Amino acid sequence: MEKLLKECKELLKKDHKLNSLAYDMQKAKDELGIDEVLIAEFLEDFTIQLLIFLNHYETSSIPNLGEAIHKNLGVARNMMCRDIELILEQIKRYDDESQIKELMQKLKCLAIRLNTKVAINTLELIDATKVL
Fold first, then answer.
1. How many Cα atoms occupy the beta-carbon half-sphere of 23 within 13 Å?
2. Cα–Cα distance measured from residue 1 to residue 123, given in angstroms and rounded to the nearest whole number
3. What is the DSSP letter of 61?
């Protein structure tokens, strides 16, 4: 897990645009009109859903990748996760599998950055289910 966290830190450090779009809880609170506790709960759920989606992408084919991207894009927009929104928009535009794979790795790193504790717990659970 430490290796993944380090790789993500390096990957995101190289992308200045993504760094400028890091999540702004206060802005989301002001614009959405809901309290931080509720926003945090939504972000926890979104982190989990993104990592489950990415696990499906990595381990098997997703029957309708475009639809899955569209659904996650809607949540990213609603929750004002501009960095995740940007990557999902880029994935929608590409057909090249190597480009999509690279963007999916960035998406995983952004999910980890969104809520590191929840992401680590989720990834550990996903890994544990692979053993079973």
1. 23
2. 9
3. -
Structure-block tokens of residue 101: 């794979």
Instruction: Measure the CA–CA gap between 121 and 132, rounded to whole angstroms.
Output: 17
In total, the chain counts a number of residues equal to 132
Task: Report the run of H or E that residue 91 belongs to, with start and end.
Answer: helix 82-93
pTM of full prediction above 0.85 = yes
Q: Tens of pLDDT along 24-81? A: 999 999 999 999 999 999 999 999 999 999 999 988 877 788 899 999 999 999 999 9
Are residues 54 and 88 in contact, defined by beta-carbon separation less than 8 angstroms?
A: no
* Tokens 């999509």 -> residue: 100
Assigned token pair, 20: 């400028």
Q: Two tokens at 36?
A: 């931080």
d(CA 113, CA 80): 14
Please report the domains of the chain, with CATH numbers, ordered by start residue: 2-131 (1.20.120)
Q: What is the H or E stretch that residue 129 is in?
A: helix 116-131
